[in-house]
Design goal:
mainly alpha
Length: 211
């Protein structure tokens, strides 16, 4: 198991948004320095999951080797957070599909906005919450690493933390959403609640059985 340094992680990661006003200073290798991050890697601890998701720490030692070279992307100044780490291939698709027998679209269709708006709200939620969901995916990947590589059996506290941080990120998105249109502050909060409660319920069912 080869430890990964933060320099290696940042070197393989993409930073968004890509513009001319990047807020980071650069090291001697012309790699961006993420604000608040400690140099090098740290050993994984369940209690550090939020710090990994919020880009306060680079990936834990051994994660990149276990994941065959997968490094998170680091985002800053996005609707979900001031800075965050995400799975570059992450999405909300798994959350929008059924985990407890009812889809997000079906639940939204039964809400006050009716069956016509339900699919439209779910579609917009997929876009609006993309970064938050991708960070949630990264958090779950860290827990899979802990369970499968480090033989940490009790990942449930970390799983609850990942779900809670994700919910907070979605809440920040809703706070940055306008008052008008199909996807407004009200429908954003409705979608957020439906998605979070569904995942939270599944976490309590599956518990440490994360696959």
């Amino acid at each position: 198991m080869t430890p990964c340094s933060l320099t290696q992680a940042i070197g393989h990661s993409r930073l968004r948004p890509e513009d001319d006003d990047e807020p980071f200073e650069y090291d001697e290798d012309n790699l961006p320095l993420i604000p608040g991050m400690e140099p090098g890697c740290v050993n994984f601890q369940v209690s550090l999951v939020e710090s990994f998701m919020r880009a306060r720490l680079g990936p834990p030692c051994g994660f990149s080797s276990w994941s065959r070279g997968y490094f998170p992307d680091y985002l800053w100044d996005v609707k979900a957070a001031e800075q965050m780490a995400v799975n570059p291939e992450g999405s909300c698709s798994g959350v929008l599909l059924s985990t407890i027998g009812i889809t997000t679209v079906e639940l939204l269709s039964k809400g006050p906005f009716g069956s016509v708006s339900g699919p439209a709200i779910a579609d917009r939620a997929n876009d609006a919450f993309h970064d938050a969901c991708s960070s949630h995916d990264y958090g779950y990947d860290l827990l899979r690493f802990a369970k499968k590589e480090l033989d940490i059996d009790n990942i449930l506290p970390g799983r609850r933390t990942v779900d809670s941080v994700w919910n907070s990120m979605m809440g920040r998105v809703c706070g940055n959403t306008g008052f008008f249109g199909i996807f407004n502050k009200g429908t954003c909060q409705e979608a957020r609640t439906v998605m979070y409660l569904g995942v939270k319920a599944w976490t309590e069912v599956e518990r440490n059985g994360l696959k």
